[in-house]
Amino acid sequence: MEKQAEAIAQLIRDNSMYVKGGFRPYFCNNKKFAEKIKKCSYIYPIVGIDAASSEFGCRPEVFAPVFRRLRAVSRKNTLDSLYEKHDMQLGRTFHVGEDFYDIVDGLRAIDECIFFLNFESGDRIGHAVSLGIDAYSYYKTRNFNIVLPRQILLDNAVWLLKKMEEYSINDSYGTKYKLKEIFETYFRTIYSKIDASIEDYYASWMLRGDEPSRTKDSLQSEWKICAKNNFKPILKQIRNNSKAMDLYQYYHYSKDVKDKGEEIAEYQLDDGDVLVIREVQKKMRQKIAREKIAIETNPTSNLRITDIDRYSKHPITVFYNRGLKPNYDPDQIMVSINTDDQGVFATSLEKEYALIACALEKKRNDDGSPTYSPKDIYKWLDDVRESSLVSSFLDDEMS
Ligand SMILES: [Zn+2]
Question: Are strands 145-149 and 264-268 parallel, antiparallel or unpaired?
């Protein structure tokens, strides 16, 4: 990862010498690249990076150091001041929350993306389906029973409990007690040799954005600096918690912990759990809207991969519904409509827009009347198009 990150960093630096309107071979230290570029009339600079792969077995923590490292690379060079209008930080997209063991797992992955990659205004989450789908119908189709590896169940339970505290979520059904029971049972089973509290365990989860093999090195290279998630002040405090540090090491390096954690567990949810999960979805949407992190939606990809079986059930209108409803939510998330992998899903941007427009036109209220007027739908779609351009990482002249 370190080698690949440094290669991409070098490419960004080389590439930014050749921007629209000028060819500057004397600044390039990559001869092969310079030769290749001579054949093009001009090229666009690299404006962003994206990670989009299978989510199972590859949580955001895996590529977090790469994303932090590449954010530290500036697209600026000495001549950029001639044309530059904006801050030239690299834009970032991370596909997450499309494929998950259950909604809580998908929500935790989104939270990990934001926290470990240090996502901020202008960054983009790809999919984020778990943030918008209806939790009740999702769990109902599974008879409120979920099956997942023990380690994931333990992590999800502790994470959900801490989110309930963070967002002051009502606990009228005793969900916190159930989550603490999961911790007691599975922590003892998986980490049998250690004694630690839920607080220590949650602290160790926060460390997972760190690159494990490098955290004890003395810091020299930029990679090593970015290998540690130093963006959040709370992590400095946590690194003084020896229990959290031990748990973090066991999580990565103990074969016993890994073997026990991979065994399968089952969990039965009740209505109270689902209410809590819905509330966490809502609070996270509000947070993402306020932090101005954008969501790129890929309707066809989501229909093939997730539970969503109709375009009209796609959560894009849960994220952004200004103009569609008379009383829309105050916190609107910046959304865009995208294709994901055009080849794999045999689609195009035009098709994705048309499918969403069609779905909204066909949507009916309980009494059979159309939910939205065509005028509102096309105005809404145009707003989405505009917001896509704003979140596209491109400068005005490039878009
Ligand atoms: Zn994707």
Answer: antiparallel
Q: What is the Å distance from ligand 1's center to 258 Cα? A: 27
Structure tokens at 210: 């760190």
Domain of 1? 1-46
Q: How far is the CA of 95 from the centre of ligand 1 (A)?
A: 5
Separation of CA 312 and ligand 1 centre (Å)? 20
63 alpha carbon to ligand 1 midpoint, in Å? Answer: 15
Q: Mark whether 107 and 153 lie in a shared domain.
A: no
> Does residue 37 sit in the same domain as residue 59?
no
Pairwise CA distance, residues 124 & 335, whole Å:
9
The alpha carbons of the chain give a radius of gyration, in whole angstroms, of 23
Q: How far is the CA of 391 from the centre of ligand 1 (A)?
A: 17
Same domain, 80 and 41: no
Give long-range contacts, CB 8 A cutoff, 24+ apart: 231-239.
Answer: 231/68, 231/118, 232/115, 232/118, 232/206, 234/206, 235/206, 235/207, 238/203, 238/206, 238/207, 239/207
- 206 CA to middle of ligand 1, Å? 25
Ligand 1 centroid to residue 356 C-alpha, Å: 18
CA of 313 to the centre of ligand 1 (A): 18
Residues 16 and 78 occupy one common structural domain: no
Per-residue pLDDT of the chain (399 residues; tens, 9 = 90+): 888 888 888 887 776 655 544 445 445 566 776 676 666 655 556 778 899 888 998 999 999 999 998 887 765 544 444 444 444 678 899 999 999 999 999 999 999 999 999 999 989 999 999 999 999 999 999 999 999 999 999 999 999 999 999 999 999 999 999 999 999 999 999 999 889 999 999 999 999 999 888 655 555 677 887 888 877 889 989 999 999 999 999 999 999 999 999 999 999 999 999 999 999 999 999 999 999 999 999 999 988 888 898 898 999 999 999 999 888 888 999 999 998 887 778 889 999 999 999 999 999 999 999 999 999 999 999 999 998 888 888 755 444
The dihedral built from the CA positions of residue 266, 271, 275 and 276, taken in this order, carries a sign that is: negative
In a domain, 358, yes or no: yes
| Spacing, Cα 194 to ligand 1 middle (Å) | 38
The rounded Å distance from CA 54 to ligand 1 centre is 8
Q: Is the pTM of this model over 0.85?
A: yes
Residues 93 and 192 both lie in one domain: no
